[in-house]
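User: My advisor asked me to double-check a structure prediction for CTL-like protein 2 before group meeting. I don't want to rely on an old file, so could you generate it fresh from this sequence?
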Amino acid sequence: MPREQNTTNNMTESDELMNKYGEPLRYDRNFKGPRQKDRSCTDVPCLLLFILFLAGWGFIAHYAIKNGDLNKLMVPTDSLNRKCGIDSSVLNKKYLFFFNLSQCIDPLVPLTGCQTPQVCVESCPKESFIWDTMKDRPFDELKSKLICITEETYSTIHTKNDIERAIENQLCARWYIKSAPFLNRCMFEFSEKMCEFIPSFLLRGGRSRRDLLQLAGNASSEPEIQAQALVLNMPQYLVAPPTPDSKQHAEIVEEPIVQCRRRLNEAVIKEKMMQTDTRLAKLVGNMVAHFYNGTHDAQRLGEEIVEDLVNSWSVILVALLCTLIASLVFIALMRWLSAPILWFSIIGVLVGLLVGIYYTIRQYTHWKKTPTVPNHGLNLQSTVTNVLQDQSTWLYLSIFLGACFIIILLLVVVLRKRIRIAIALTKEGSKAVSTVISTVFFPIFSWILFIVAITFAIGVGLYLGSIGQSSYRMVQRLTANGEPTKEQCRCDGLAINYTIGSACDPQIFQQNCYNPQASTSGFFQQTQRVPCANTTCSFEKIENPRLVQWFIVYNVFGFLWLSFFISAFSDMVLAATFARWYWTFKKRDVPYFTLTGAFFQTAFYHLGTVAFGSLILAICRMIRLILEYIDNKLKKYDNSVTRAILCCMRCFFWLLETFLKFLNRNAYIMCAIHGKNFCSSAKDSFNLIMRNFLRVVTLDKVTDFLFFLSKMLLTAGSGVATYYFLANNPAIVQLHYKEVPTAVVVIAAFLISSVFFGVYSMAVDTLFLCFLEDCERNDGTPEKPYFMSKQLMKILGKKNKLPPRQRRK
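Assistant: Sure, here is a fresh prediction for CTL-like protein 2 from the sequence you gave:
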């Protein structure tokens, strides 16, 4: 009877432990971690909320596309800040003409704007004009072809000398060629090989690229061919030559679509590559011109850079493929190289600090024995010289370096055992990534989702921003010195109440406002009103209705929530994959489709947890954006107390978001291990981390330092190998600058290695929490064996006491 009672007590304890830890007491060779088999859906209400939120977002997108008009946002603006076809002075001029369109082929244009003069015109030029080759023609013909920045400039031209003077002052265009409107911008009439540069989704009617293979070659004269070749910076043989049926196509059409219908089956890849090379050279040349003296030299340098890239593209691809393979091999070798690399790095830092201490003490002794008169110049060089010749500078610097040396040395001595644990876990992470190699390429899936989310949010935001009534304001044009003009603009009739700064209507302004000083009248003559030239009714903004404003806020929050959701989903899938690897007692028994299983496990059971964690981060980020908006609105008040409060709040929420990201990451790992909801997982992970705080801090810093060194090593190796190959094989690839392809390889190699080590970092974090769970739950007995590697057990002084048949091989 006592024996039966003892058995009953044991079973009761077993049941209690099963309920507490969710794991069997006895050793099971197929054990895959706590609650691996009996999972259930977690945080279902939050998942339903997320689905309803996405449905609401979809409704807003439908509403925005139905009621929005992107043409309102794409209306061009000329150099005088007039909206073409909208402002009062250019109501009948809806097209934008560029004096020199080639200057707009610049990657900095979105930031700096196109620097060439721009003017609104009624229609794009229907024929070409080159002043330098046509100045001998009659004055009336030349004046009729002029396109000037303002009507006043055009009206003051009476002779050819006036034309020459206006052109030299960039008040009138020196040359232009036949153009066609594209998005209300006058674009060059394209040659027959330029249609492929027009994205099909930008062309009206949704026509496919097949319908737009070639633009009609309408250049009907040699000057037009010369001008087109000049502007496009390409040889004349690439510009469409005159054709027998040129006269039939002499009349310019309204859309480039119509120009792209001839020679549908004549796509020549080689010539397109040559044209792409030329256009790209123009773009790079304009970019280099910002940092390089001389436009001609910059253009030549840009052409040489592009030529080097085109000639070495095969070398670049091979170098990046080698970097990809090297990253995989490096991760595999980290199980043996992590300890030497880390200890070598630590010793190198300490040696470097010793060298710095020696040098600073030497400089301090030198300048203490060599007093100098300070340089009294007010420039930066004099200030730096005075600082470097001051003995106090070197004294304080030596003290700082000495303190850093002592602190790092003490940390290494005190935390040497924990550093060894971090190194061992890094080796375990290498084994996990090498075993489930598909995890390295999983971030590509996340990138695709991110691109879709960004595109959707931007599109909805643009459509929402175009909904509403346009507001106009009566303003005066500014002079070159930034001062308003003194023009007297009088309004009567329906515009009698119009004043500078007040709201107005362009149509009413144009009909009822005039310049009384410029108007003429006589005894037998009716008064002839002259419209105001420097005072206009200008577009100010689109006033969105209150509902649309809330929709915009909804769209911003939706993007934040969805982006954090995608990132969290990726983290949980990787965490489930590496947790499954750790909790498999014999690592060779890890299933082949571990990543696929983790993907479906997360998708079927834990999307609610992912939605919950991402919602918290989205709310925190939204609060930060609101604080930035408030700070921007309150800048004009210049209140120091308000600025201090906002600064503290911004700092607090930044720290809060950083902490929440750390907490969420560990909560996802615990959810992947145990299958609990977000709150329980966050609580368990936080308590587990606090119980092992020193280990966590040590591991985090050590692994970050190790991964940084690894990325630098791979990046530097790729760059050096590429440069060495190009320098020693000039017969294979002939280049102007070997640094150009080398720089491309270095940048791309750093991005590739960052992706690899991002997955590696997730593996180490997951294995670390599994390691801490393993240490607290198991004791090495046959009933509760350790799942950690033999190296970790050796560092901790632990071992498994398993029967011979069940020992790890």
